[in-house]
Write a structure and sequence with these properties.
The structure is a single chain. The protein is an alpha/beta fold. The chain is built from eleven helices and twelve strands. α8 links the parallel β8 and β9. It starts with a strand and ends with a helix.
């Protein structure tokens, strides 16, 4: 299931998730969305779920695209099979429960306070009919409304109460066997110490998803990130091969090897010295379907997608990356960026523009774990 959590009036406090029987469904995610993004599924005041596949062009099981959802107002701690230690044995990290049909849950974004957007990021018309009619009749009414909002925002900023305006920044630190082999020959690097330094300098909490090969190759950096409370670490699999067919330019990993690859990545990240490893997983390339969600479910992970995918891969203009993120951002957004100075060379500069603007708008930047804990009713 893909979980999208709406907020009540209380900021980042316990939320009850509504449980209902059905097969569960996926949502778009990872560092790129694919064709066939899932349509919206039924929702409740506390939770909503989007049906269909997260990234495949056609459902593996020919689902109708309007499946029910199942969520439980409890937190659970991941205890992967075949692992002698739980990544969150202290109970620090909450996970979402698997769907009734046994598919790994997918967390796309956190609390919402603004009108939802469609797949193109445009706001849907869900405004109150009476307010809309007043706005159409009188420009003065619109100006008054804007003035009231501005005054309220100013008071909120002065009081230090950020309310529901939270956002999570996530970074994919990916490395495949092919990338590592090429890097050994041409000297190119797929880490980004400048980005990590910038996040530390600005005291920006972030969730870094590492592939096992990245953690092995850049062991000292993985250890440094993984022992800094400013960061939390998620698993990007070991090989960073695709878990579906036709996932951009990533070679596909067969279904019978996917669970082992998730566990191998987890072990490699721990072996690098990472202490703050979470039970959160990101599908390589952002591509997943029913089959892959079932394949990795025994690992006990919560898959983390994202609703704002930064176009930083291959981009040379940091302004374009920052502009796109700031345009699409909303309270509760999970932003997907990259930690790769070769493939995403302007991410650091873009982040140095994004962070001050978010703070100016009154956003509070949080870890993904804080959003999930809030969604599961943990203060």
């Amino acid at each position: 299931m893909t979980v999208s959590v709406r907020r009540t009036a209380r900021p980042l406090t316990a939320l009850a998730l509504v449980a209902a029987a059905a097969a569960g469904c996926a949502g778009p995610g990872g560092d790129t969305t694919r064709a066939g993004a899932s349509p919206a599924a039924p929702s409740s005041p506390a939770a909503s779920e989007e049906a269909g596949e997260g990234s495949g062009q056609e459902s593996e099981e020919k689902t109708s695209g309007k499946g029910d959802f199942s969520a439980s107002p409890r937190s659970s701690v991941s205890r992967p099979e075949g692992d002698d230690r739980d990544a969150s044995s202290s109970g620090r990290y909450a996970t979402l429960p698997a769907s009734i049909s046994g598919r790994v849950p997918v967390f796309r974004h956190g609390p919402r306070t603004e009108a939802p957007r469609d797949a193109r990021g445009e706001e849907k018309a869900e405004e109150d009919g009476e307010n809309r009619e007043k706005r159409e009749k009188s420009e003065n009414a619109e100006k008054t409304e804007k003035a009231e909002k501005a005054e309220k925002a100013e008071k909120t900023e002065k009081s230090g109460d950020k309310g529901d305006k939270v956002v999570a920044l996530t970074f994919d630190a990916a490395l495949s066997a092919e990338d590592r082999e090429r890097a050994e020959g041409d000297g190119k690097r797929h880490d980004n110490p400048g980005l990590i330094a910038a996040l530390r300098r600005e005291k920006v909490p972030a969730t870094v998803f590492m592939s096992g090969l990245w953690a092995q190759t850049y062991k000292h950096q993985a250890r440094s990130i993984g022992r800094d409370d400013l960061f939390e670490v998620g698993n990007l699999s070991h090989s960073h091969r695709a878990f579906t067919r036709d996932c951009r330019d990533l070679p596909a990993l067969s279904s019978d090897k996917q669970l082992a690859d998730v566990r191998k990545g987890q072990k490699a990240i721990r072996a690098a010295g990472v202490k703050n490893l979470t039970p959160y997983f990101r599908f390589p390339g952002g591509c997943f379907d029913d089959r892959s969600r079932r394949a990795v479910a025994p690992a006990g992970v919560t898959a983390v997608a994202g609703d704002v995918v930064a176009p930083d891969a291959g981009e040379k203009d940091p302004g374009k990356v920052a502009e796109r993120v700031l345009k699409d951002i909303r309270p509760g957004s999970v932003v997907v960026l990259h930690c790769d100075r070769e493939k995403a060379p302007v991410t650091e500069k873009a982040v140095r523009r994004i962070v001050p603007e978010l703070r100016e708008r009154g956003y509070r930047i949080v870890h993904v774990s804080e959003m999930i804990a809030s969604a599961m009713g943990r203060d």
